[in-house]
Amino acid sequence: MDVQVGDVIQTKKQHPCGANTFDVLRVGMDFKIRCTGCGREVMLPRAKIEKNIKKVIRP
Q1: Where exactly are the structural domains of the chain?
Q2: Could you tell me where the DSSP H helices lie in 1-59?
Q3: Is residue 56 pLDDT above 90, yes or no?
Q4: Does the structural domain 8-57 have CATH classification 1.10.10?
Q5: From the CB of residue 2, how many other CB atoms can be counted at a distance below 10 Å?
Q6: 23-42 residue pLDDT tens
Q7: 33 has which bridge partners?
Q8: Which of 23, 46, 52, 56 sits most deeply, having the most CB atoms within 10 A of its CB?
């Protein structure tokens, strides 16, 4: 999957705040993403993120 820093991703599952879009802050073995709804930052393993991405929105 071609995801780069600065992209916005839409996920299959919602964040608890209700938003399902996230800004990508870091890419590697772990992804660091920031919720566009509440601003919380989360680090998740690459395998989990790639499984849950619905679509990538370029800036």
Answers
A1: 8-57
A2: 46-52
A3: yes
A4: no
A5: 6
A6: 999 999 999 999 999 999 99
A7: 24, 42
A8: 23
